[in-house]
Amino acid sequence: MIYLDYAASSPVKEAAIKILMHSTIHDFANPSSSHQLGLDLMDRINVIREKMLDLLGIKRGYRVIFLSSATEANNLVIRGLSLKKGDHVLISPTDHPSIKVPSYQLMKEGINIDALEHTADGLIDEKLLLEKTFLKEKLLALSYVNNQSGHIFQIDEMVKKIKARNKSIHIHVDGVQAVGRLAINMGDMLIDSLTISSHKLGGPKGIAALIVKENVDLNPLMFGGGQEYSLRSSTLAPPLIFAFFAAFLEAMEKKDELNLKLSAFKDYIMENLPTHCKTVIFPFRKELTSHHILMMIFPQVKSDILMRHLEMKKIYLSTSSACSSKHNKDNEVFTHLKIKSEYHHHVIRLSMGEETTLDEIKLFIKEISLIHLDLAGIGVK
Amino acid sequence: MYKLLVISIDELWLKGKNRPAYFRAIKKHVVDVLTYYQDELILIKNEEQRLVCTSEKGFTQEAIGALQKVPGLHSIQPSRAVDLDLEKIIDEVDLELSAMQMVPTTFKVITKRTNKRFPQNSMEISRYIGHLILKKLPKYKLTVDVHKPKLIVSLKVTEQNIYIATKTYAGIGGQPFNTSGHLITLLSGGFDSPVASFLMNKRGCRQTYLFFYAYPFVGQDVLDKILKLVSILGQYQNGSQLYVLPFGEFQKELSEHIRPDYRTLFFRKYMLEAASLLKTRLKGDAIITGDVLSQVSSQTIGNLAIVDQLTPTMVLRPLIGFNKSEIIEISRRIGTHDISTIPHDDACSMFAPKHPVLRPDPEYFMSFVKENQVKYEGLLNQVLDQAWIYQISISGKINKLN
Predict the structure, then answer these.
(1) For A313, which residue in chain B has the nearest alpha carbon?
(2) Residues 247-306 of A with CB under 8 A from B
(3) pTM
(4) What is the nearest CA distance from B58 to chain A, expressed in angstroms?
(5) Count of domains observed in chain B
(6) DSSP 3-state assignment of B147?
(7) What's the domain range around B12?
(8) DSSP secondary structure letters along B70-113
(9) ipTM value for the complex
(10) What is the CATH classification number for the domain harbouring B138?
(11) pLDDT digits (tens, 9 = 90+) for A233-281
(12) Is B137 in the same domain as B211?
C-alpha cells in the first residue's frame, strides 16, 4: 500500500500507540475526581498543557483546552465569541468546512460574513485583507495552511499589520495542517487562538486542542461538569491526551528533518512526473505551499476515475471534487483558488508524511503515468 | 385493525385447465408475504376465486401494503363477516362508519353474489341495505349517490358468509409470480429499466437482476443506487437475486479494439451477450431491457435491430412505445422515482464519442463480432465467474452471497 493522503489523516505513530495502550489500561480514573488517582491524572494533563505551550513558544497568557476534534475547536471559537448582529467576520471561501459552515450559521443570526479574496497565485490578497480589517470586524478565522492546496498564509507579518489597525479583532488560526510542519512561534504572533488536531500528526482520532488567550471570553458549546475552564464540559480522556502529546512532541522534534525530506520529494515529483505525463499541471508554485501537500491537475482524465484506478493498485490519495462527476457544479474552493472551471473535476491532492519514502514516490509516478497514458489513450470523458 | 382480508384475484377468469396451478402460485406468494409481515399463523382459505385471510392479531397496514405489490391480486379488502342474514349487516356497517375519522357524505352499496341460492339477487340486496343505512343510521347524515359516491359499501355474498367492506386497496393485477418464465433484467440507475422490470413483474415473470458495474470508471455510489433500486423492485417478487458484473476492464479492453463511434453499440451487444450467457447458466427464458425507441442514439431502430440479429436470446422491451413522461409516472407509483433521480456516473456516456453512429455499417459490426466471438465470449464468461451475487428477500432486504 502507498498512502499519500496524510492531509486527511496520518498513520498513528508507534510512541502514541504504546502510550495509548498503556494509559487505557492504567489511567482509567476520572481526572476530575478529587481522590488521589484523579488528582494525579489532572497533574499529568496540566504538565502536558505547559509543555505544549512551551513547544509552541508561548510563555504566558494562553491556555490549552482539550476537545474532540479540530472541527469542535473551530466551532467553539466561531460560535463561542458571542458575536452580535451587525458584527463582521472575515473568512476565506477556500477554507475548511469547519470554519466556513459555522460562519454561514452566524449569517442567519444577522452577522456579516466577509469573504477574503485570492490572487491568481491562490494566495490571500493581503492588500484587500488589510482594507477589509475595519473596526466592525470582530473575527478573522483562517487556516495557516490550506488543506486542499497547501497554501501558506504568511501569518507573522499580516497579523501585526491587522492588529495595528484593529486591536479588538480576534484572530483565530486553524493550524491543523501547519503544526508539526511549519515553524510556529506563537509567542511572536499576536494570534488569539489556534487549533491543533491529533490525528493529522500521527496521534489518535477523537482528540484535539484549542490554544486560546486567557482573556478571551468564550461561551461553551456544551454544558455540564464545567471541565476545561467551563469551556468544554465532558470527562477528559487521559489516554487520548497522552498519546496526542506523544505524537505532537515527536512531530515538533522531527519537523525540520521531515520538511527537508518532503521538499525533496516534491521537487522529485514536479521534475519527473511531467516527463511521463506531459499534460500534468502543478497549479501553484512550490514556495507558496507547504511541502507536504501537492495539488495536481490532469486535464485529460477525470480525477475520480484516476483515483479509483490508483486505488486498484493500492495507492491512496484524494480528489476534492464531488463524489460523482455527474454533479457538474463548480467547486467553490477551486474557484477561489483561481483554478479554471474546466479543471475542477481533474484535481488530485497528494499529501505526504513521516513514513513516505522515495521508493513510494517513484512507484506512484510510474503507476499514475501508466494509468494516465492508458486512460487518455481511450479518451474517457 | 381488521382480522379479515378478502383478496380478489385478477385475470383468473382467463384461465382454463391450469386455473388450480395459478391459484396455488398466488396463494403461496400471499402466504409468504403474510408470514413475513404478520408475526403469527395466518389462516387462508379459498372461497370461490377469492382468498380469505384470517389473523388473530389483526392485519397491519404494512402487510396490506406488501400485498398490494403481489402480482396477480386485483384488490385487497379489509372486511367484516356475518352469517347469511341480511339483518346482521347493518350493525357491522355501523361499526365501520363509527371507526372512520371523517364519514363521507354520499354512498352506494355494491353487492357481488356468488351464492346463487341466496334468495335475493345482488340488485335487491344493494337496494335493501342502502335503505337500511338511511333508515337505521341517520346519525351519519349519509345520502345516496349512485354515480359518484364518496363511500362504497361493498358486500360479497358467498356460500357461508356475507363480507362487508368499505375500503378497497388496489393490487397491481396481472399474473402470479413465477408463472411466466424466468427473465434476466438489465438494470441501470435510470428511470427506464426499473419500470420495465415492474411491468414484467405484473406479467408473472420471475426476474434475476443484472448490473454492469464499470468500476473503476464509476464509483461505489452507482452500485449503492442499484442496491436501493433492487430493494424496491424485489418487493414485487418472492425472493430474487442481483448479479453485479465487474465490467470496467471489459469496456476498456473493448474500446481499445473498436471504432470509437461504435462504442455504445458494441457495449450494448456485449451486455446482451453477457445476459444471454447468464440466462443459459440460470436456465432462464429471456432478457428484459428498458429500451425506448429513439430515446437516445443507441436506441434507433437500426441500432436495436442490428444488435438483436446477433443476440441468441429473446429480448423483451416492455417500454418500447412509452413516452418518457409515462415512464416517470409509473416510476413514481412503484417507488423508484426518487432513487432514479439521484445523479450517477454512467460508464457508457464516459466512453461515448461525440457523434455515435446512428446507421451502423452492418458489415463492420457483424464481421467484428464474428471474428472475435471466441475471445469475447471467453472474457464475458470470466466476468460472470467474478460476479457478486446478492439475495433480495420478499421485503427488499439485501444480503451479499459471495
Answers:
(1) B216
(2) 304-305
(3) 0.86
(4) 46
(5) 3
(6) coil
(7) 1-78
(8) STTEEEEEE-EEE-S-GGGHHHHHHHHHHT-SS--SEEEEEEEE
(9) 0.79
(10) 3.30.2130.30
(11) 999 999 999 999 999 999 999 999 999 999 999 999 999 999 999 999 9
(12) no
